[in-house]
Fold:
Amino acid sequence: MSLWSRIANVFRGDRLNREIDEELESHVEAAIEQGRDPAEARRAFGSMLRHREESRDMRLIPWLESLRADATFGLRQLRKNKVTSAAAILSLAVAIGACTSAFRLIDALLLRPLPVANPERIYDLSRQGIGPEGAPQTFDGWAYPNFQLMRAAVKNQLELIAVSYAEPVDLTYKSDEEIEKAYLQYVSGWMFSTLGIKPALGRVFTENDDLKPGGHPYAVLSHDYWTHRFGQDPSVIGRTFRMGNDLYEIAGVAEAPFTGTEPGTMVDIFVPTMMNPAVIRKDSTWHRTLAMVNAGAALEPIRQKLDATSRAFEEERAKGFLGMRKEDIDHYLNQRVLLEPAASGVSDLQSETRRPLVILGVLVALVLLIACANVANLMTAQASARAREMAVRVSIGGGRWRLVQMVLVQSAWLALLAAAVGGLFAWWSGPFVVSMINPPDNPARLLLPADWRVLGFGLVLALGVTLLFGLVPALRASSVNPVSALKGGEDPHSKRRLMHALIAVQVAFCFLVLFVAGLFVTTFKRLSHQPTGFSADRLLVLDAVTKQPQPLEFWVQVAEHLRSVPGVETVAQADAPLLGGNSWNNFVSINGGPSNGILSYMRGVSPGWLETMKIALIDGRDFRPSDTHPGSAIVNETFAKVYFDGVDPVGKTFDLATDEGLRLRYQIVGYVGDVRYRNLREPILPQFYVPFRSVDASGAPRKKGAATLLVRTSSSNPRTLASILRQEVPRARSEFRVSRIRTQLEINQSHTVRERLLATLALFFAIVALLLAGVGLYGVLHYSVLQRQREIGIRIAVGAQAGGIARLVTMEVFSMVLLGAATGVGVGMVSVRFIESLFYQVKATDLQMLAPPSLAILAGAFLAAVPAVIRAVRIDPITMLRAE
Amino acid sequence: MPKSDSLQGSLDLLVLTILSRRPRLHGYAIMSAIQSMSGEVLRVEEGSLYPALHRMEEAGWIHANWITKDSGRRARMYELTAAGKKQLGAEESRWQTVTSAINRVLRTA
Structure:
C-alpha cells in the first residue's frame, strides 16, 4: 500500500466502504462460529460505523476525500442552476480566453526568449540622438564598415553579430517564369556558432563564409521554410536559386525552431552579410548589430569603447558631408551608442505593437474583473439562498473551514470549466489576431506555441479568478449565524451592500473599457478618412522586375502595351508607389546657399503619373518624355512653402548635393498639390518629383531593373484585372515579370492596420464589457426584488404607486451606477494620458468622447433594470402575504 | 488515531509478533491468538483491531489479501512484509528498553 493506493482509494470510496464492512462483518461471523452469542459478539465489537470511518481515514487521504466530495457536490450545485451556471461560465470563459489570448500574443512577441543558447546575454546596439527633423530619435541601423571597426575594437570582450532587417525578396528556383517571395535575412557567418544554432541538415555558416564581398553565394534555410516549401526533402542541399543576378547554393538547414531574430517575421533564407551589395558602403545603414555579452561582463566600459569607435568612424565620414548645416552634423555626431537587452529578439513589430498590446492586455484584464464581479454576485446570491443549508451544516458540526472549502471548490469548478472553454477560445483567437496585425498580403508570422508557459498562465489565472470571486462569498457563507439564519431573519442588507459595491466597480471598469474603445474607434475613423491628395480608386500597383536592368525604352513599351489591355484607363511608371514604405530624401539648397536643415522627399515618376494618380496640377506642366533626372522637377505646395515662402516656384531652380560631392541642379517645371508620401499621421512632407528617365553624369540614360507600374482601371474592382496584367507584362517584353500586385487602396489601408486592430478588438471588448455589466446589474436587481418581495407586497397593499415601487427597487443600484460612471470618467481622463500618442486628432477630454460611453452605460443599466421593475410592480400583495 | 486500549500502545508489537510466528491470519484469529498466548490476560478491544491493522497495512509492515473460505465467505488474511520484520525488531528493542527502564524504577522504589 502506498500513497498512490491511498489516492486511488479516494476515488473508489464506495468499494472501500464495502471492503471494510465485509472484513468487519467476517470478524463477527468468525466470533459466532467460535460459539459466541451473536448479540454479545456484536456488542463486544462496538460501533461498526465508527470503526469503518477510522479504517477509512487510514486507507485514504482524508483531505483529498473531502475535496472530492466537495467537487462532486459543487458540480451537482452547478447542474442544478443550469442557466445561471452556463451564463457565469460563458462570461468567464470569454474573459479568461481573451486574457490567455492576449498573454499568448504578448509572450510570443515580447517576452519569450529567442530559441538560442544564452538568450539573456544578447543585446541590441542602437544610437540615440537628435534626428534630422530636430526630434529625438533612436535608430538601430548600422553601416557595415562601422560594424567591422566596432567588432575589432571589442573583439576580446564580446562578439558582435550583424543581422539585416528581414525582408521579402523575389527569387526563382527553376525557370524565371516562377518568381516566388521569401523572407531573407543577411547574417554574419559566425552568428550560428555564437547563438549555438546547429544544422538540421547540411551545414550552417561559419566565419569563413563571410569574408569577401560578393564571394559567398550560399544559403541556409530555416527549418520552417524547409518544411513548408520543400516538405523536408533532404535532397534540397546543393540546389540553387537565383536572386537578382546572383545564383545561390543551398548549403544547409538550420535546426528548428530558430527563424531569425525578429519576432513577427519568420525568416526563410539566411545568406552571409558579405552578399549584400551595401556591405562596402559607409552611407547605408541596413543591418542591426547584436552583441553577445559574456556572462557578468561590465557593460559600461564596452559601451564607451563602441561609442568612441563609432564616433571616430562617423567623424571621418562627416568630412564629406556637403549641403548639411553644422548643427545637423553635430546632432549626427553626438549620437550616443546604447546597449539594450534583446533576449526576445528585436523587431519593428515589437516596438510598434508593444504599447497597443499592453493596452489591450489592460482592457481584457478589466473585462475579466467585470466577469469576476458578476460571478461573485451570483455566488453571493446563491449562498444567501443556501443560508439555511449552511446554518444546518454549522449546527450539526461542519467546520467553518470546511464550508469555505465547499464554496471555494464550487467556484473552482466555474473557473476551471470557464478556463477550458476560454482555452479553446484563445487557441482560435490568438492566430486570428496575429493575422490581423499586418496587411493581409504580408501577415505577421509569429510562433504561438501552446506550451507550459501558456498553460501555466491559464491555470494561475483560473486559480486567481477563483480566489477573486469565490473567497468573499465563501467567507460570508461560512460566517453564517445558525440561530438567526434558521429563524429566517439574517440581515439581508449586508449581502446587498457587497453586491452594490461590486456594481459600482463593474460600471467604473465598463466605462473605462468603453471610453478607451471609443477613443480608438474615433482615431481609426479620423485616420482612415485622412485626405491623401491622390485617388486610390480603381488603382492597381504592379511591382515589375527584370532579370537584367533594361533600357528605358523597353519600360515605355511595357507601359504602352498595358494601355491597350481592355479595362485599363491609364498607365504610369514610378520608382515606387506612394505610401509604399520606400523613402528617398535629400537636403535641398536654393541659389547655392546652405540647406535649411529640412529634408525633402523625392520620387521618380513618368509623364502621365500626375494624371494617373489624379494629383492636382496647380501651375506649370507635367513631365515630358524628354525631361531627365537630374534636370527637371515638379514640387508640391509644402515644398514651395518651405523653400520659396509659398510663392509659385515654377521656373525657379534648386540644387541637391550628392555623396560624391557633386551638386545637381533642377529646374521646377510643375507645381502640384500636397500628397501623403510616407504615412497618414505625420504632417505633409516637402516633396519633389523627378523624371523617371534618369541619366548618369555623362548624360547617358540609366537602365532600370525594377520599378512600379501604376494602372488605373475602369472596373470598380481593380483586382479582376490583376491576373491578366500579370500575363500581359511578360508578353509585352519577355524580360519583364510582375513580382507583386497590390491595389493602392490596400497600400493606404496598411497604414491603419494597427489602428484598425486596436479599434476592432477594443470595440469587441467594449461590447463584452457592456453585456457583462448589464447581466450583472440585471442579476443584482432581480435578486434584490426577490429578497424584498414581502416588503414590496406590503407597500403595494397600503397603496404605493408603481413609480414609487420602481424608484424603491432601482434607486440604490442606480446611484451605484452613477458613482461607478463618475469614477470611470475620472480614472479614464487620468489614465489615457499614458496612451495619448496612439490617438490621432482625438482628445480624451472632448465631450463627444465622454458622452457615448456614459449614454451606453445608462441605456444598458436602464434595459437591465426593466425586467426587475416589471416584476416588482406586478407583485400581487395578496398572494405574497398569504404565502408567508 | 488508535484509541487507548488495555494494551497501551503495544498492540502493534503484539500483532507483528503473532504474524511473525504464524503467517496468514485473519483479524479474528490474530485477536484470539493474542488472548490465548497471553493466557487470557491481554484482551484486544475487538473493533479497534481493524483501524490498527489498516494503519500498519498503509505503513507497509503487513500485507493483506482476500481468500475465499470453504463456507464460501471471504476473509482478509494478513502476513508480515520485509518492512514489517524490520519494524518488529525496532518495536521489540523499544519494548525491552521501556520495560527494563520501568523495572529499574520499580526496583529502586
In short: Chain A touches chain B at residues 1-2, 6, 20, 22-24, 26-27, 29-31, 34, 44-48, 50-51, 54-55, 58-59 (CB under 8 Å). The longest strand of chain A covers residues 539-550. The longest helix of chain A spans residues 348-385. DSSP finds 27 helices and 23 strands in chain A.
